[in-house]
């Protein structure tokens, strides 16, 4: 960890806790800042805040009082989930107080080279693949951070120059950076998402492009060349662009050539030998291979991982086979595009489990991908909208249930051997579950109970 004095004796407000807020507050306290933590959850129900209080950090809980801005803070470190429409955040920006997210702090203290991954879909799989490939190479020492596991500021504190810090980054996090500069940046793809937070696709895209805004000619940007919108979005970058494509051969990037993965003209592995299923995962694989090669991973490490890696939990995760039915957990499919990709990965008859938070959209875009769906079990706020799309797709058997657990039983009852039972909700989980991980774990538990 770098020793820095930038925050020493500065009054800093950490707004919102969860893992990133707790870590940021503790780090800033260690760096000599005068830290105040403000979290909406009452202190009596807030063990994280209580722990910080025991460290001697000032804690204010129960609400976000606007009067806090009168205390003369020089910086706010905001939890990524708190929107910029929050009165405290709006008031801070009007006063000229910088508002950053925890990844900016991580960058400031990290001794390790950073590989940052963002995009609408595939971030977690790509991040995990890179980490696993680097780990499989005896000459490399990767660390993994971000939404995927340990928060960035915790990992950055133990990172040395011998490490490579592989970090998954959301648009929410990237809105709050100032100097953050990954040596290698990746944008997997760009589609509509989180418009309730960003307001417009343009603002969402701008947040994603922040991953390369501080890169220089010495840095690298790996990007999906199949999306012209993406290429236009980062036209300002100073980094060297390394493209990948699932649709055309690229001599200057990563793509398919004669059924094999090719990087800068070098054939690495035949696609048929890759275990990870689905066309959508090919984008993730190409991006991960490009990054791994640029970092210096061996071809043997790449082949070893790609021939064994079966996927990330909650991302088209194979769960079990019960009486001939295959169960897959794709709880991470929190938008329509992700659900489309999951449905596209299967050629067997599918019982689809879907539903969740209503963000105002319809599900007509799912209809062309439902050709193999023989039954649909719906739940949550969007149940009725999904049923409408299912009827338009010609699905004869549609049933609404109260929750994911009941959906598993209902799906099993109408299925026969050879069917795939797929949880791919096409919606966020927050109407019923605190996270997509909890939703996915409930699905897994319900599947195991069937035995």
UniProtKB/TrEMBL annotation:
Q: Its Gene Ontology molecular function terms?
A: UDP-N-acetylmuramoylalanine-D-glutamate ligase activity
The answer to whether keyword Cytoplasm applies is yes
Q: What reaction(s) does this enzyme catalyze?
A: UDP-N-acetyl-alpha-D-muramoyl-L-alanine + D-glutamate + ATP = UDP-N-acetyl-alpha-D-muramoyl-L-alanyl-D-glutamate + ADP + phosphate + H(+)
Location (main, coarse): cytoplasm
Boundaries of each Mur ligase C-terminal domain copy? 314-427
> What region holds the Mur ligase central domain?
117-291
Q: Which amino acid positions bind ATP, per UniProt?
A: 119-125
Q: Keywords assigned by UniProt?
A: ATP-binding, Cell cycle, Cell division, Cell shape, Cell wall biogenesis/degradation, Cytoplasm, Ligase, Nucleotide-binding, Peptidoglycan synthesis
Q: Which InterPro entries match?
A: Mur-like_cat_sf (IPR036565), Mur_ligase_C (IPR004101), Mur_ligase_C_dom_sf (IPR036615), Mur_ligase_cen (IPR013221), MurD (IPR005762)
Q: Write down the EC number.
A: 6.3.2.9
Q: In which pathway does it act?
A: Cell wall biogenesis; peptidoglycan biosynthesis
Taking the record's annotation, the residue ranges forming a coiled coil are: none
Q: Where in the cell is it found?
A: Cytoplasm
| Cited PANTHER family | UDP-N-ACETYLMURAMOYLALANINE--D-GLUTAMATE LIGASE
What the record says about family reads:
Belongs to the MurCDEF family.
Q: What does this protein do?
A: Cell wall formation. Catalyzes the addition of glutamate to the nucleotide precursor UDP-N-acetylmuramoyl-L-alanine (UMA).
Q: What is this protein called?
A: UDP-N-acetylmuramoylalanine--D-glutamate ligase
Q: Report the source organism.
A: Heyndrickxia acidicola
Q: List the top taxonomic levels of the source.
A: Bacteria, Bacillati, Bacillota, Bacilli, Bacillales
Q: Which gene encodes it?
A: murD
């Amino acid at each position: 960890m770098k020793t820095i004095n930038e925050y020493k004796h500065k009054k800093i407000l950490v707004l919102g806790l969860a893992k990133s807020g707790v870590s940021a507050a503790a780090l800033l306290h260690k760096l000599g800042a005068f830290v105040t933590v403000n979290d909406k959850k009452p202190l009596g129900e807030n063990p994280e805040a209580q722990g910080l209080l025991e460290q001697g950090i000032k804690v204010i809980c129960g609400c976000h009082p606007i009067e806090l801005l009168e205390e003369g803070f020089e910086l706010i470190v905001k939890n990524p989930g708190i929107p910029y429409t929050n009165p405290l955040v709006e008031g801070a920006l009007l006063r000229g107080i910088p508002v950053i997210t925890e990844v900016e702090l991580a960058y400031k203290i990290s001794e390790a080279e950073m590989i940052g991954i963002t995009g609408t879909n595939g971030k977690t799989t790509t991040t995990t693949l890179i980490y696993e490939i680097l780990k499989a190479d005896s000459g490399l020492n990767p660390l993994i951070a971000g939404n995927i596991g340990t928060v960035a500021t915790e990992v950055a504190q133990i990172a040395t120059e011998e490490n490579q810090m592989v970090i998954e980054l959301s648009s929410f996090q990237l809105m709050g950076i100032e100097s953050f500069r990954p040596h290698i940046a990746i944008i997997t793809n760009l589609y509509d998402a989180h418009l309730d937070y960003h307001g417009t696709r343009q603002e969402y895209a701008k947040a994603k492009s922040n991953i390369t805004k501080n890169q220089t000619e010495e840095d690298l940007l790996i990007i999906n060349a199949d999306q012209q919108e993406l290429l236009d979005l980062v036209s300002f970058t100073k980094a060297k662009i390394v493209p990948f494509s699932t649709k055309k051969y690229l001599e200057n990037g990563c793509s398919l050539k004669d059924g094999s993965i090719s990087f800068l003209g070098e054939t690495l592995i035949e696609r048929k030998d890759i275990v990870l299923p689905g066309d959508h995962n090919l984008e993730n694989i190409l991006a991960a291979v490009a990054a791994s090669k640029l970092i210096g991973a061996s071809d043997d490490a790449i082949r070893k991982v790609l021939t064994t890696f079966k996927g990330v939990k909650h991302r088209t995760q194979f769960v079990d086979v019960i009486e001939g039915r295959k169960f897959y957990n794709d709880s991470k499919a929190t938008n329509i595009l992700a659900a489309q990709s999951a449905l596209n990965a299967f050629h067997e008859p599918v019982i689809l489990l879907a539903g969740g938070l209503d963000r105002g959209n319809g599900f007509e875009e799912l209809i062309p991908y439902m050709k193999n769906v023989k039954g649909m079990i719906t739940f949550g706020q969007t149940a009725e909208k999904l049923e409408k799309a299912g009827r338009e797709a010609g699905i004869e058997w549609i049933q609404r249930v109260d929750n994911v657990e009941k959906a598993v039983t209902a799906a099993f009852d109408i299925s026969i051997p050879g069917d795939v039972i797929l949880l791919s909700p096409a919606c966020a989980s927050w109407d019923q579950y605190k996270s997509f991980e909890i939703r996915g774990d409930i699905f897994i538990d319900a599947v195991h109970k069937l035995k």
